[in-house]
Amino acid sequence: xxxxxxxxxxxxxxxxxxxxxxxxxxxxxxxxxxxxxxxxxxxxxxxxxxxxxxxxxxxxxxxxxxxxxxxxxxxxxxxxxxxxxxxxxxxxxxxxxxxxxxxx
Length: 104
What we know:
This protein has 104 residues and is α+β, with helices and mostly antiparallel strands. The protein contains two helices and five strands; from the N terminus they run βββββαα. It has helices spanning 78-82, 84-101; strands at 9-14, 21-33, 36-43, 49-59, 65-75. Strands 1-2-3-4-5 form a five-stranded antiparallel beta sheet. The chain is globular, with a radius of gyration of 15 Å. The two termini are 18 Å apart.
């Protein structure tokens, strides 16, 4: 199984053929505690945004679990600076995709 550790570089891709968007990131920290697990990544040059995103799964004292996605970013490419509402909509869609993956 894959190991997530600080310094791991991940290159995600979105799209097909020449329209494929490359999304490079590096894991900046890992949370490995008895009741909290997760990681955060920072964007690398070439990513459409510049920032960090953290994914933390926590088990409460009552046994219930919660999942938190925290992010901050600013445009990382010239095209990202002019995409306005489209870029924000894309970020919301990606967050919804993360959350949907938890249901499976």
